[in-house]
Amino acid sequence: MIVSLYSTKGGCGKSTLAVCLAAYWSRTKKTALLDADPQASLSVCRPEVLRVPVFADTSKDVGKTIAKLAGEYERVVIDTAGYRRRKNVEALAHSDFVLIPCKPSPFDLREAMEAVELLREIAGDKGSKGRKGTQPRYAVVLTMAQRTAVSAQIREELEHSGVPFMSAQIGQRVAFVETPSIGFPPEGSVAALEIELLAKELKRRIKT
Predict the structure, then answer these.
(1) DSSP notation for 55-122
(2) Rounded distance between C-alpha atoms, residue 22 and residue 134, angstroms
(3) Average pLDDT for 2-21
(4) What are phi and psi of 178, to 5 degrees?
(5) Are 170 and 141 in contact (CB under 8 A)?
(6) How far apart are CA 179 and CA 84, in angstroms?
(7) Would the pLDDT of 131 be above 50?
(8) Are 88 and 36 in contact (CB under 8 A)?
(9) Mean pLDDT of the chain
(10) pLDDT at 84
(11) How crowded is residue 2: how many other Cβ atoms within 10 Å of its Cβ?
(12) Which candidate, 188, 189, 180, places its Cα nearest to that of 79?
């Protein structure tokens, strides 16, 4: 299973989600993290607490790296660059599923819709097909969400637009800010439960 995190909006929790999902899956599956972002956000994570091998490739041959990792690991999580670039298209086209993190605000929703447009372009480009000859599924996931009218409004707008979005959402929690230092959120915490629910929903969506 190859899952990419993609958004052109900074500060939406893209790298944090990549780390948390990889850390969660690594408990039961052989898992790797691929940093395809030139900003190298994953390099700040402490290896002794993350306990997931991190690879880096921002080259035009990133598709080959993804294919190689997919042959060696059961789960591959890719943190893509936070802007539109050809190498992102290559990574997304090789993914089984693309998560588009989106904070509950009109500005972030607009950026998420641009990400959706890119994925639709990939779906219409036969030359962009990945390792299995199929196009990746995708969905928006709300991050830093709270029980506010704005969050409810954003979910409603996503539903009306017909854009797929995850039922699971990620709250605004200190544990996620501390991820580079502590790794996966503390056992039994709400943050850990949110990642577990998201990972399980991803598995169901990829299978169906």
Answers:
(1) EE--STTHHHHHHHHHHH-SEEEEEE-SS--HHHHHHHHT-SEEEEEE-SSHHHHHHHHHHHHHHHHH
(2) 23
(3) 90
(4) -85, 0
(5) yes
(6) 26
(7) no
(8) yes
(9) 87
(10) 64
(11) 26
(12) 180
Count CB-CB contacts under 10 A for residue 123. Answer: 16
| Residue reference for tokens 């709400």 | 190
CB-based contact 58:38 (threshold 8 Å): yes
| Nearest-10 crossing angle of helices 14-25, 190-207 | 80
DSSP β-bridge partners for residue 171: 145
Residue 5's pLDDT is 95
Question: Residue 176 to residues 60, 102, 143, 154: CA-CA distances in angstroms?
Answer: 31, 15, 10, 22
From the list 79, 35, 86, the residue with the least C-alpha distance to 56 is 35
Type of residue at 112? A
Burial of 194 from C-beta contacts in 10 A (0-12 / 13-18 / 19+):
buried
